[in-house]
Specification:
The chain is an alpha/beta fold and about 250 residues long. It is built from 8 helices and 9 strands. Helices cover about 45% and strands about 15% of the residues. It starts with a strand and ends with a helix.
């Protein structure tokens, strides 16, 4: 029937580029967009798609819409402007207009999409889009081989989400950032979060601060031999450990 787009990019300019590339592949219309969560690099391109078709449905979790409306949209426009030397000028915050909660099955022509929302992971409202016939899952940002932002997320929630994502039995896992992958991405993201969070629990109980925990957590074989090769590891893993400590404290008290 047409094209379904999962996440639209970080600006109207990126959205326009995506549309141009789609038209090189097919003359079928774009019939639906799904925003996996409320971080700006995944929804600010909505502007281009609505400009192309004002009646286009853009699907998200209600919490994504709420976050964008309650200051998140303005934050991300400013963030992207500052970090791109004003390259996203003209981008208008464009909200999703249809909601899902997880558990829905959507049918487009001969293709079946299952929408999953397991628990708080990268954010409290991440959508995983399973393409049943292709044994493919679009993960948004719940997993990637890079040390990315966890400030809006949960380590235990990500661990649980990775277990459930593996249970989907997919062959292909499409990441919001980085190359496409297989089920091993779920294993690696689960292990990473387990080492960081469980280490934070252990060393917090021993009275260590986050900077004292860091060398102990990084000495674990998985962290040393696997995660240390991920993009952004050296510069941001300390922040990850600090965020984990904050979540440990929240869960204790």
């Amino acid at each position: 029937e047409g094209v379904v787009v999962v996440d639209t990019g970080s600006s109207v300019q990126i959205g326009e580029m995506v549309i141009r590339q789609i038209k090189k592949i097919t003359d079928k219309p774009i019939i639906s967009v799904i925003n996996t969560h409320y971080h700006g690099d995944h929804f600010l391109g909505n502007h281009a798609f609505i400009a192309e078709n004002p009646k286009l449905e853009i699907i998200s979790h209600q919490a994504t819409i709420d976050n964008i409306q309650n200051g998140g949209g303005e934050f991300w426009v400013g963030f992207m402007q500052r970090n791109s030397n004003d390259a996203i000028s003209g981008t208008i915050i464009t909200l999703p207009n249809k909601t899902v909660e997880g558990g829905e099955t959507l049918k487009f022509g001969d293709t079946t999409l299952k929408i999953h929302q397991f628990t708080k992971a990268h954010t409290e409202c991440d959508l995983i889009v399973e393409v049943v016939e292709d044994k493919t899952a679009f993960l948004g940002d719940v997993a990637m081989r890079r040390v990315a932002n966890m400030a809006d997320g949960s380590f235990p929630g990500t661990i649980e989400t990775m277990k459930k994502a593996k249970e989907l039995g997919c062959t292909n896992y499409i990441l919001g950032h980085g190359p496409h992958d297989n089920a091993s991405i779920c294993d690696d993201m689960q292990k990473f979060c387990e080492h960081v969070y469980n280490g934070a629990v252990k060393y917090y109980d021993e009275g260590l601060s986050d900077f004292e925990m860091k060398p102990k957590i990084l000495a674990e074989p998985f962290m040393r031999d696997v995660a240390s090769k991920w993009s952004g590891f050296d510069s941001t893993v300390g922040v990850f450990i600090s965020v984990a400590v904050s979540e440990v404290e929240q869960n204790m008290f």
